[in-house]
Design brief:
Elements: E1 6-11, H1 15-24, E2 29-34, H2 41-50, H3 56-65, H4 70-77, H5 92-104, H6 107-117, E3 123-126, E4 133-138, E5 143-145, H7 147-153, E6 157-163, H8 175-183, E7 186-189, H9 194-202, H10 205-213, E8 217-221, E9 225-227, H11 236-247, E10 254-258, E11 275-278, H12 283-288, E12 292-296, E13 299-302, E14 305-308, H13 310-326
Parallel strand pairs: 1-2, 1-7, 2-3, 7-8, 8-10, 10-12
Antiparallel strand pairs: 4-5, 4-6, 9-11, 13-14
Keywords: Cytoplasm
GO molecular function: LPPG:FO 2-phospho-L-lactate transferase activity
InterPro entries: CofD, CofD-like_dom_sf, Gluconeogen_factor
Length: 327
């Protein structure tokens, strides 16, 4: 019997659904492990109102892997523009996820129920059953609590960690998340915000330990652009150093690096105001981290912004699967 390769993608934000959409129709078994530390926008408001796990990243992952007709996915993604004090700015899918979480008693079971209803080709696992709070210490020694506060500070981050505001014990991921990581053929990190989308997942102790222990190849998709206040002036090697430092050992096996230059006059920095400059390259530094480097043109220019070309990235991930199995 043919064994479908198991790919686990860990992250959040806008990068995660891009890769999920590319993998949905491939002959692979995809699991998305999604951050639950978001506290901005509609997700943050719902989190504060009813203490639910922030649903925004989960909603986007559901749509990315759903095989429902387009109109049904568009309804799920619809964001109210009403003047109503409560509904304005909320995505309908966020309200549905929050309602199901209340009905089921936890977010994990709610997402599994919704996965069946939305005909998900794969699996979507919230990384924890409770909303987590992101904490950061900056290089000047100051500290802040909350993803949106940390991002808005525009200060250089030294380290991040997560806490559960309702439980003094260290947060833990559910068993299904750990099993998926340990059973995977490939673990993919990113693309996404280093400190606010990727690391919040890895800072859950049993997730970090599983990623270090798994026999799967761990692939990091390095960002194309640096982010204001998070990764200003970072090289690709700096991104990997931060990941390895947070987990206490080198655990990144392979890094995908875009080497196609971003045209200087193309980016609209007013519209894409969270980004800074293209990530610079330090291949010697990457080699020092002990990882394989795959450098290629992964760039897609659209809407005066610089993004990963989904099809090229997915093709490279599948190539890595083939090469690892061939070895």
């Amino acid at each position: 019997m043919f064994h479908k390769p198991k790919i686990v993608i860990i992250g959040g934000g806008t990068g995660l659904p891009v890769i999920l959409r590319g993998l949905r129709d491939q002959n692979v078994d995809v699991t998305a492990i999604v951050t639950v530390a978001d506290d901005g926008g509609s997700s943050g408001i719902l989190r504060n109102y009813i203490n639910v796990v922030p649903p925004g990243d989960i909603r986007n992952a559901l749509v990315a892997l759903s095989e429902l007709p387009t109109i049904e996915k568009e309804i799920f993604q619809y964001r109210f523009n009403s003047k109503d004090n409560f509904f304005a700015g909320h995505a309908l899918g966020n309200l549905i996820i929050s309602a199901l979480a209340e009905m089921k008693g936890n977010i994990f079971d709610a997402v599994q129920e919704l996965s069946d209803l939305m005909r998900i080709n794969g699996h979507i696992y919230p990384v924890a059953n409770e909303p987590l709070t992101l904490n950061a210490e900056f290089t000047d020694g100051s500290k802040l609590v909350g993803e949106s506060e940390i991002t808005a500070a525009h200060k250089q981050i030294q380290r991040v960690w997560v806490t559960d505001s309702d439980d003094p014990e260290a947060p833990m991921a559910v068993k299904q998340v750990i099993d998926a990581i340990m059973d995977a053929d490939q673990i993919v990190l990113g693309p996404g915000s280093l400190f606010t989308s990727i690391l919040p997942n890895l800072m859950i102790s049993n997730v970090g330990e599983a990623v270090k222990k798994t026999k799967a190849e761990v692939v990091y998709i390095c960002n194309i652009m640096t982010q204001k206040g998070e990764t200003d002036h970072f090289t690709d090697a700096d991104h990997v150093r931060v990941l390895n430092r947070h987990l206490g050992e080198p655990f990144i096996d392979t890094v995908l690096v875009n080497i196609q230059p971003v045209p200087k006059d193309y980016i609209n920095f007013q519209e894409w105001n969270e980004i800074s400059q293209p990530v610079t390259h330090d291949f010697a530094g990457l080699r020092e981290q002990g990882c394989r480097v795959i450098s290629a043109n992964f760039l897609r220019l659209r809407d005066n912004g610089a993004f990963h070309d989904r099809d090229k990235v997915v093709r490279e991930l599948l190539n890595r699967l083939h090469d690892v199995h061939a070895d």
